[in-house]
Write a structure and sequence with these properties.
With 594 residues, the protein is of the alpha+beta class. 30% of the residues lie in helices and 21% in strands. The longest helix is centred in the N-terminal third of the chain and has 45 residues. 35% of the residues are buried.
């Protein structure tokens, strides 16, 4: 009986347990099917996401606003600190700007400050941490707003090569505005500072000189002292060098005696070339003394006595040309080879007819290398009077070789010439040994401004084998190459058909010249050197006067730098003075550094 009772109790418990399990299982199944309140969970999830996304936009707008304000403060601060007229300490200027705007602790690290009399550069980094409102929901409590700024004084270290065309076509007449001038020769200006003009007819050279002289004044303002240097390069068939630069180079010997022995009118002959002579100090009697001797003066190589012992007492012909030639591959590099020997251009008139014993009028002589010392390259000058005097001395000469002008323009901006120019005592002490600066010097800007009124044309040279004897060099210095005189051994005066004769000479059209490249080849050289310059110098400006010159347009470092001027200054077309003024304004502008 008792066992039965126990079994019944156990069975009852099992039934209750099973019933409880089935009830729980039924509840779970019901809960699984029940959809009441499901949107509440989804709403909570979506609400949080919407708060994050919407709040993210708000936080990022606040971030961008703060970053813009910080960048503005940074830009204004570095511009003020970089200004060379700013007398306060640059670091204090930066601190005051940030403190005044509520960003006293925003500057990161030490700002880069480089400020001298010749230029300035300021660079700094800054940042602020901004507390977030909504992004903190996903763990982003702050956003960091960074700003970087740098500035240089636009006229703090500026190197300019001004390359001007003095070819024969610059003598043609044109119409244009002529400056009104006062009794001192200075331009008369209106109340707004504009130069008053009258329309008139003058040569192209006149209008170039007028515009270029004003360009010089616009660049070399008193407040830019020791900051702006100008290389002045005049070109026609060749580019003439002044004695200071020519004698600093290794050149082929310029002299020859009657026995065809070569020599030099300056310096010694070393390994077949004329070695650059040295500057010396001399006393009042002209004797060489050690540098620094009291009362001593510096004597330039061209003022020193010439040693002609090598001539053995025989007559000497000295080629006065101060032009040199470049090899073809030298137009494919900006580097100037200061170690190679440069060939002196011959002294000759290619085109004039012969002069008779008693000419009825002056003979027009045109040398490939200008005979005027004032036409020679002026190096790194900030002397307004010197530069303007040289420009005023220009007159139309020979053919147009734009590629040679451009080659010299970029060479005088290339750091490879720094040591060579550093040894030339005539260069301004503010620049000698310091310029041309490296292309990576962030405080220095380099500009080429080149103008022409034509296109590059092929030119001539004397065949080397017809210019290696005394008689040939002397004869070509006296007579035009196309009518070269031949003196017979027996002094015969027999003339051949179609020839001119006088005295003991026979004149004939000769074959002693050769062309220097085709126009296509020469324009290719110009394009090569322009492309290289565009990659290194700050800007290349080109001015085409009176024609559309595609090569010059492509030579400019960017489209807006290629200027074109009509030869009549038509309304709507800029004149030379306006073009040069625009270029000067761009060069001297204060700017934020990139």
């Amino acid at each position: 009986m008792l066992n039965f009772k126990n079994r019944e109790n156990k069975l009852k418990k099992l039934q209750e347990t099973r019933r409880a399990y089935l009830e729980q299982l039924a509840f779970i199944r019901q809960f699984k099917k029940d959809e009441d309140g499901g949107l509440i969970v989804l709403t909570l999830i979506l609400l949080i996401s919407m708060l994050v996304v919407g709040g993210m936009a708000v936080d990022f707008m606040r971030f961008e606003s703060e970053r813009t304000k910080l960048q503005s403060v940074s830009d204004r601060a570095v511009l003020a600190a970089a200004n060379l007229n700013q007398e306060r300490d640059a670091g204090a200027v930066l601190t005051d700007f940030f403190t005044a705007e509520g960003y006293a602790d925003a500057i990161v690290g030490e700002p880069f400050i480089e400020k001298t009399a010749s230029g300035s550069e300021i660079r700094l980094s800054s940042q602020i941490d901004m507390d977030t409102f909504y992004l903190r929901l996903i763990g982003m409590d702050t956003l960091t707003a960074p700003a970087r700024a740098s500035a240089v004084e636009g006229t703090g270290n500026v190197e300019v090569s001004l390359v001007l065309d003095i070819s024969g076509s610059m003598g043609r007449l044109m119409e244009g505005p002529i400056y009104r001038r006062d009794e001192n020769g200075d331009p008369i200006r209106d109340s707004d500072g504009n130069i008053l003009t009258d329309e008139g007819t003058e040569t192209r050279m006149f209008f170039l000189q007028q515009a270029a002289n004003q360009f010089i004044e616009d660049l070399l303002l008193p407040e830019y002292e020791d900051r702006v240097s100008i290389n002045l390069i005049a070109y026609s068939q060749h580019v003439r060098l002044r004695d200071d630069l020519y004698m600093a180079l290794r050149t082929t010997p310029d002299s020859i005696n009657e026995n065809d022995v070569i020599g030099s009118s300056f310096g010694a002959i070393e390994d077949g070339y004329a070695a650059p002579p040295a500057y010396i100090w001399v006393d009042a009697d002209g004797n060489e003394v050690p540098a620094g001797t009291e009362g001593a003066t510096l004597q330039a190589p061209w003022d020193q006595p010439v040693n002609v012992e090598w001539a053995g007492g025989f007559d000497v012909f000295t080629n006065p040309s101060r032009c040199i030639t470049f090899e073809d591959d030298e137009y494919e590099t900006l580097t100037f080879d200061v170690n190679r020997v440069y060939e002196q251009v011959e002294w000759v008139d290619f085109y004039s007819r012969p002069r008779w014993p008693e000419p009825s009028g002056p003979s027009f002589s045109r040398e490939p290398c200008s005979p005027e010392e004032s036409h020679g390259i002026i190096l790194m000058s900030q002397d307004v009077e010197e530069l303007q005097a040289a420009i005023n001395s220009f007159y139309p000469t020979e053919n147009t070789s734009i590629h040679r002008g451009m080659k010299w323009g970029v060479s005088l901006l290339d750091p490879s010439m720094r040591d060579l120019i550093g040894g030339i005592q005539t260069v301004d002490d503010a620049f000698r040994g310091r310029r041309p600066a490296d292309y990576t010097d962030r405080t220095t800007s380099k500009y080429v401004v080149i103008m022409t009124d034509g296109e590059t044309v092929s030119s001539q040279r004397i065949l080397p084998e017809r210019y290696d004897e005394y008689d040939e060099r002397f004869g070509l210095s006296e007579h035009a190459a196309n009518y070269y005189p031949v003196i017979d051994d027996d002094n015969s005066t027999t003339a051949t058909a179609g020839c001119y004769s006088r005295g003991d000479c026979v004149w004939y059209l000769n074959n002693i010249t050769e062309s220097i490249g085709s126009e296509e080849d020469l324009n290719e050289k110009l394009s090569d050197i322009c492309e290289l310059a565009g990659d290194q110098v700050t800007e290349v400006y080109t001015i085409s006067m009176g024609l559309f010159n595609e090569t010059m347009r492509d030579c400019a470092s960017k489209e807006g730098n290629a200027f074109q001027s009509t030869i009549t200054n038509d309304p709507g077309e800029p004149g030379l003075d306006e073009i040069f003024r625009k270029i000067a304004e761009q060069i001297t502008a204060l700017r934020l550094a990139l």
